[in-house]
Design goal:
Shape: globular
CATH class: Alpha Beta
Number of domains: 1
CATH architecture: Alpha-Beta Complex
Distance between the termini: 40 Å
Strand order of the largest sheet: 1-2-3-5-7-10
Length: about 260
């Protein structure tokens, strides 16, 4: 697949729509991550792009990192995070324009961190939110350790991180993880209408408000991302992670004991 097909882009009436397009589950490989980084860099520079709307194609937002890419490359998890998800999360938070996520289906792992970093989240009634990392013996990264407790509370965040159980769309709405729900067939229309309304608003003031929220609530974001990368390097070398990956590839339950 050509790189320009991996991330679909459309700029209309001030709304830059970005759609992850890597079937079947829009899993992130290095090309998709770097394409998204470039798109956010362009959004920062382009005065015509006043709002960013991020979604996925098909019935899944994203399953997170493509594990197959890791098994082939033998990359350092810390180095990978420092090149990919950490700078992307910072880009989303530092972009002084509204960033909306339209979660059209399941989202997990690093993709969950990307969704949580957005300013507003809308979700299909069929959406599911899975922390995901524990399933393959890893610790949370991509700012999930900071953003998930901030949105739903430490107790709930701990439960769903440890259990790896999905958070339903209804739970996500009740707990403040998402702002609105919509039927799957109407999600993009609802999200586009909200984005268009924001695009006609005072972008400078909204950018300053976002800067204030970052200072008040997420002042330690960069430090947390760096510490997550440190912990992930430890987890990535563990017996639990090796078993988790083997079980995933063999399509069986992991045996962590």
């Amino acid at each position: 697949m050509a790189e320009n097909d991996i991330l679909l882009q459309d700029l209309h009436n001030g709304v830059l729509t970005l759609q992850l397009n890597r079937p079947k589950v829009n899993a992130f490989n290095f090309e998709l991550i770097t394409s998204l980084q470039r798109a956010f860099k362009q959004a920062e520079r382009d005065s015509q792009a006043r709002v960013v709307l991020l979604s996925g194609t098909g019935g899944v937002f994203s399953a997170g990192q493509d594990i197959n890419e890791f098994t082939r490359s033998g990359v350092s998890y810390r180095n990978h995070l420092l090149r990919t998800y950490n700078p992307l999360i910072l880009q989303i938070r530092r972009l002084e324009k509204p960033v909306l996520a339209a979660v059209n289906g399941a989202v997990s792992g690093a993709a969950l961190g990307i969704v949580l970093a957005c300013d507003l989240r809308l979700a299909s009634e069929q959406a599911r939110f899975v922390v995901g990392f524990a399933g393959i013996g890893l610790a949370p990264d991509s700012a999930v350790s900071l953003l998930l407790p901030a949105l739903i509370g430490l107790g709930r965040a701990s439960e769903f991180t440890f259990s790896n159980a999905p958070i339903t769309a209804e739970q996500a709405l009740a707990w403040g993880l998402v702002n609105r729900l919509a039927p799957a067939s109407e999600l993009m229309a609802v999200a586009s209408a909200l984005a268009a309304g924001l695009a006609s608003g005072p972008s400078g003031a909204m950018g300053l408000a976002k800067r204030a929220f970052n200072k008040a609530v997420l002042a330690n974001l960069e430090q947390v991302l760096d510490y997550e990368a440190h912990l992930q390097e430890i987890a990535g070398g563990s017996v639990e992670h090796k078993e988790g990956v083997a079980a995933f590839l063999e399509k069986r339950p992991p045996k962590f004991n």
